[in-house]
Specification:
about 350 residues, alpha/beta, Rossmann fold, Helicase, Ruva Protein, domain 3, five-stranded parallel beta sheet, two-stranded antiparallel sheet, 16 helices
């Protein structure tokens, strides 16, 4: 009950408590970070503060999909001496091997079909800044070899190039996989793992830091109130308890998506339990189809609608439904929604679904 009592504090009270923890210097000039009361997150903020001065220290961030690994990576950059230089991000799971290599290292004109001009890669563009490699566990072995050289010598060659290019970048990598297991399986280089794992930060899932749920709700509600011209002031008691009791398998990403949908489609001053659709309730395509039909029957609201958000919600529901009907067989599930397996697998990761 003590944990729940803490979680029920208002966002302003949470911010005041956070300052009392003497962490204000970490967020100097950064006002868009939601304060945490969870001991595990306070430890992470301590680590970030300590490595802020080590401008080239490599950091490996581990945690479940949607837990906030990208937020920690962003905070590492913004509290470092590199903060006035670029922070460039790439998702290693979203690109095939050749395209990922080209995006990272650049390429020379004519180095492959379609390479009509010379192109600088992210490592060059991020000189004096930070490169965030998300889903590093998905990187192909040949690209891993080139990345290892960057970490060892801070030099590389563009695809098709013969000249060594020197850069000064900090590498921050993130993964929702167990890289040690991948090393044992031979899908991830051991030497690269050790180079990346100078400082490891493990971001806990939202279910293990229930103190953060309501401050995050307040933060996202404020964002979406502005976006959709709404005036929600909070949650009623049943909604508050339902969110605290839920296990959040999709973590903060799931909470944010749920708040966006609820604020967009809700009305009044308080969000109720009925405004929320969790995985344990009715977040299936049929329900969303009914909502869509209702929206099409009425004039569009003056504040507009979030088309991309609605499309993503429908897509996520169909992916879930396909996984359920296929018994978790991704090849069959991909067939059911007309995608190839790679595209389907990417969406499984994007929405933080459990892989079978």
């Amino acid at each position: 009950m003590k944990v729940v009592a803490k979680a029920l504090e208002s966002n302003s009270e949470a911010r005041r408590n956070y300052r009392n923890q003497n962490h204000g210097d970490l967020f100097g000039g950064i006002d868009d970070v939601v304060p945490s009361q969870a001991p595990s997150m306070l430890e992470i903020y301590d680590i970030v503060r300590k490595i802020a001065g080590g401008e080239s220290t490599t950091v490996l961030i581990e945690g479940e999909s949607g837990a906030g690994k990208d937020v920690v990576a962003n905070l590492i950059h913004r509290t470092s001496v590199r903060r006035n230089n670029p922070l460039l991000e790439i998702n290693c799971a979203a690109l095939p091997e050749q395209l990922l290599e080209s995006e990272l290292f650049g390429h020379e004109m004519g180095s492959f079909t379609g390479a009509a001009v010379q192109k600088m890669g992210l490592l060059e563009l991020a000189h004096s800044g930070t490169v965030f490699l998300d889903e590093i566990g998905e990187m192909a072995l040949p690209v891993q070899v080139k990345l290892l050289r960057v970490l060892e010598k801070m030099t590389f060659r563009r695809v098709g190039g013969v000249e060594d290019i020197s850069v000064d970048v900090r590498i921050v990598a993130a993964t929702n996989r167990n890289l040690e297991n991948q090393v044992r399986e031979g899908s991830f280089r051991e030497d690269l793992y050790f180079r990346l794992n100078v400082v490891k930060i493990v971001v806990p899932p939202l279910r293990d830091r229930v103190e953060d749920i309501l401050p995050l709700v307040d933060y996202f509600m404020g964002q979406f109130n502005l976006k959709f011209n709404k005036r929600f002031t909070g949650l009623d008691g049943r909604a508050r308890q339902a969110l605290l009791d839920y296990a959040w398998p999709g973590n903060i990403r799931e909470l944010k998506n749920m708040l966006e949908r609820s604020v967009l489609l809700g009305s009044g001053d308080l969000l109720t339990k009925e405004n929320f659709q969790t995985r344990e309730s009715s977040a299936e395509a049929g329900d969303l189809g009914k909502i869509l039909q209702d929206m099409l029957r009425k004039p569009l609201p003056d504040e507009g609608v979030d088309l991309e958000g609605i499309v993503h919600q429908i897509e996520e529901s169909l992916v879930r439904k396909a996984l359920s009907e296929s018994g978790g067989n991704q090849s069959e599930a991909a067939r059911l929604v007309g995608l190839n397996r790679d595209k389907f697998r990417y969406r499984v990761k994007q929405y933080g679904l459990k892989e079978s």
